[in-house]
Amino acid sequence: MWPKTDQHLKGIGERLRLAREGVGLSTRAVASLLSQRGVRASHVSIGNYERGLATVPDEILECLATVYKRPIEWLRGAGLVLQGVRYRALKSVSSHDKARFTHEAQVWLEMYLHLESLLGQPLVPRQPRFRIGHTVSGEELAQRIRRRYKFGIYPVPSTIRLLEDFGVHTIQVATSIRIDAFAARFDHSRVVVLNSLLPPDRMRLTALHELGHHLYEDFLTGVPLTGDDIEKRAFEFGSHLLMPESELGEAFRIKSMVRLVEYKERYGISLAAMVYRARKSGLLSQRLYQRLWQEFAKHGFRRAEPGLVPPDRPLRMESLIESAVAKDKTTYADLASHFGTDAEAVKNRVVSAMGGSTGASNSTITPGILNFQAYKQNIGLD
After folding, report:
1. Residue ranges of domains in the chain, CATH in brackets
2. Rounded Cα distance, 378 and 249, in Å
3. Whole-structure pTM over 0.70, yes or no?
4. In contact, 162 and 122? CB cutoff 8 Å
5. Are 276 and 370 in contact (CB under 8 A)?
6. Quick check: 92 and 177 in contact, CB under 8 A?
7. Is 200 exposed, middle or buried (0-12, 13-18, 19+ CB in 10 A)?
8. Distance between CA 333 and CA 337 in Å, rounded?
9. How far is the CA of 24 from the CAs of 27, 28, 31, 104, 107, in angstroms?
10. Element (DSSP H or E) covering residue 202
């Protein structure tokens, strides 16, 4: 048996709950699986363990580790837990689906920090912390960063590099669920997890949106803004950092879809974001705004936008995996075993990072889809 202090019991209970939700099981389903393995524990007992009301017997804890595919040491409290998670997801996404995405992301984040320690290569911020009051608008903060980097009116070369410059550990996890990303704290680390199936233009804006949450420290309690206002401010920050207001005006100066696509490709920002910004700033009347979306629908642009934007992906963790294996510091199998995942999944991350095929089928997923109604919900317009 492990210590029975209230704090320790609650810590184990929180991990048990996160692990169960991560594999999508109810307490009744877990009790049934334990029974099939010859271990008796009612769903009520499992609930009590998760609430920290009872000590988990070693036999049950070991069995739960198998069912949840999590290292037993993590369940015992040796691992970190994500804190202050802020999701960029549609309101229709269930808490169950969010929990599963969070669970998978946590596995990779744990591996990421472990690899940094193993190789002695921590992510060192290149930029000092910004001191930002909540009265600073998203546009003003974007202008400050553009001045610091001396971007002028030119495009941001890499949004991921910006996040890492500010010390944000950034990874990607694939999911067909309509989740774009989340930002959180992981012990003392800032983290962002992006859906790798996002098209490049949307991923760039999403990455900067999440950076905004970190710079404003939206995870703290007592923030004098509503949740929708926080999301709108993060969108404003990300979109203005990607594309200055003067260049947005140039894009819409003449009524030309060819010109809009040209500016999309130049700045790596979606047409949807440009159109929304143009309406908000008065560059488009409500009538023209609606007509433009009708034209988008007519040509199928709401589902798959025209224009090509190069990938801008977080790959630092995959580089560390490859380096650690090449230097005989670890193996794919050891990493998988230690963090409760599959060796092929670890290897596939490296293969995918190099542009190779992993053999996985995503035939039911269309990364280029951008449903405007979903987009409006995502930025808090609905």
Report:
1. 1-79 (1.10.260.40)
2. 24
3. yes
4. no
5. no
6. no
7. middle
8. 6
9. 10, 12, 14, 12, 15
10. helix 200-215
Contact residues for 123 (Cβ-Cβ < 8 A; gap 6+)? 116, 164, 167, 169, 189, 316
Residue appearing with tokens 């949807």: 272
**What DSSP line would sit under 299-342, residue for residue?**
HTTTTB-SS--------HHHHHHHHHHHTTS--HHHHHHHHTS-
Q: How far, rounded to the nearest angstrom, does the alpha carbon of residue 293 sit from its chain's CA centroid?
A: 28
87-96, 186-195, 198-207, 276-285: range with lowest mean pLDDT = 87-96
Neighbour count for residue 228 (Cβ, 10 Å)? 12
Residue 2 exposed, middle or buried by CB count within 10 Å (0-12, 13-18, 19+): middle
One-letter amino acid of 350: V
**Residue carrying structure tokens 């550990």:** 169
Q: Determine contact, residues 174/196, Cβ cutoff 8 Å.
A: yes
Number of neighbouring beta carbons within 10 Å of residue 69: 15
Helix (H, G, I), strand (E, B) or coil at 182: strand
**pLDDT digits 0-9 by tens, 356-374:** 765 543 322 233 333 444 4
CA dihedral sign of residues 284, 285, 289, 292: negative
The Cβ-side half-sphere exposure at 371, using a 13 Å CA radius, reads 8
Residue 4, CB-side half-sphere exposure with 13 Å CA sphere: 6
Amino acid at 171: I
Q: How many of the other CB atoms lie within 10 Å of CB of 264?
A: 23
Type and span of the H or E element at 87: strand 82-89
